[in-house]
Amino acid sequence: MEPIILQPSEDTPEVVLNPVENIFRIARISVPEDAFEFYQPIIKWLKEYSKNPLPETIFEFDLEYVNTASNKQLMQLMLVLDEIAQNSPVTVKWFYESIDEDMLSLGKRYEKLAKNINFEFIEI
Amino acid sequence: MQVIDDSLFDRAFNLFNRIEQQDFEYVYRGFFSHNISKKILSLADVNIQRSLGVSAIQKRIYYIMVEGLQNITMHQEDADEYLEKYPGIFAIQKHDLFYYVTTGNLVLNDRIPDLKSRIEQINSLDKDELKQLHKEVLRTGAISDKGGAGLGLIEMARKSGNKLVASFELVNDKYSYFYLQTRIPIQKGIEETSGDDYSKLRAALISIKKLHLTLNVENILLYFNGFFSQENLLNLLAIIKGRMNLSLTTIRLSNVMVEMIQNIIKHGYKIKEDKGVPGIFFLRQLDSGDFALLSGNYVTEEQKHIIEEKLNFINSKSIEEISELYDEILLDMENVDSLRSGLGLYDLRIKSSSELQFKFLKVSENLYFYILQTLIKNVN
Fold first, then answer.
1. pLDDT tens digits, residue range B259-318?
2. SS3 call for A30
């Protein structure tokens, strides 16, 4: 599959979906006006990937700011990962600033709602 | 139980109402770092370009803003000990055919006579004489001991094509507020300041001074009144980040601000289709050290009922219940493609230290002004 690599902008995150090098990553800021429009191609790509995933998928989330519209799209993304995890293991590395307990609780929320994924919480 | 300060909501509406529909007003009050100045400039410029496009006049306004901001940063150094209590102010307003750029900052009282005479001299000169003076100052290097403030004033007068309007407000025996206002016409041909106009200019300055007083009394750190857009939001976000140390409180304030302003952008009622969504937003620090974020925008009667019901519902639930509902909405596939996630108000309630406070003020038959306030505890 062709990797997706998006540079970060002022309101959208850096996105790397690269199965060749086994790098899956969403980082920095996600506060777009239209989160659906931004995440739709990413989720579509991931659904395609889920048909033939790597033996183990490690997905990094290293987010600074997320708006609620993005939260909802990230939930969709987590659900695709959760489905993959039913057959081949998926680990989500959830990075958060040590002071940012809100970002930690967002990660915990996804952990609770996507039970097949193995979550690692990493304080930075 | 938080007591809802009704009069604050009315005051917020009055602030919003001060400027007419076609106008915009952005005021920053606080410490001016290099980075913050840059963001203020970019925020103002985005809004000016929106109405003027990239043009000679837009560039002139930009230039005047740069000079004004430099003026503030320069004088800041003189007043270290009082900055916390009497922070500077920068305002850009559009009213009728003019943009107004106003700066207010502390100056030492003993500098006032010199500043006054400098401004009087500049105001007494016509276009050519100003050009001459500019050359002369450049050539002789007869600049002020504050490194070129004199030149800045001359340039502001030249670029604006209008007189400078200055005013001093005594703060204590050492300092005064020095207000300086420049007016720039939005088109060529309306450049001359007649005697009659000069009194209008005075009135515009008095209105800013009053606003500054309000911002000081209410301890408003950030104030935006005008048309909201994603670009404005990003600049405001950068300004908040720039002025506060990174902490859980700052992160929360930023997130809550994003939700509240995107709420205005998505749901606020547009008076004129092409103008963007009019509204007001400000951030205050309360005596307790906690923060209050307030947003105000128009909604229709139909929207009012929906929002009111939702807010009453959210306020009737415990945080645990809200959190469970949050999960349900996250998992709700029905509206996954909608612009509105439906989570915004739930998120505000979770991050807020108390119930969400709101009020609807009737503006006309089918129109209300909707004010929402979120309180954020200072947990640092």
1. 999 999 988 988 776 667 889 999 999 999 999 999 999 999 999 999 999 999 999 999
2. strand
The domains of chain A, with CATH numbers, are 4-123 (3.30.750)
> CA triplet B270, B274, B275: central angle to 5 degrees?
60
Q: Closest Cα of chain B to A20: distance in Å? A: 30
**Chain A residues inside the 8 Å CB shell of B336:** 36, 72-73, 76
Q: How many domains does chain B have?
A: 1
> Does residue B250 sit within a domain?
no
Which range marks the domain in which residue B64 is found? 31-218
Please answer yes or no on whether B340 and A101 come within 8 Å at the CB atom: no
Chain B residues touching A67 at Cβ < 8 A: 255, 258-259, 262
Does residue B163 lie within any of the structural domains? Answer: yes
Of A71, A100, A112, the CB nearest to B248: A100
Rounded to whole angstroms, the Cα distance separating A27 from A64 reads 8
Structure tokens belonging to residue B309: 């019901």
Does residue A51 sit at the B interface (CB-CB below 8 Å)?
no
Chain A residues inside the 8 Å CB shell of B337:
36, 40
- Asked whether residue B301 is assigned to any structural domain, the reply reads no
Contact A36 B331 (CB under 8 A): no
Can you tell me the ipTM of this complex? Answer: 0.93
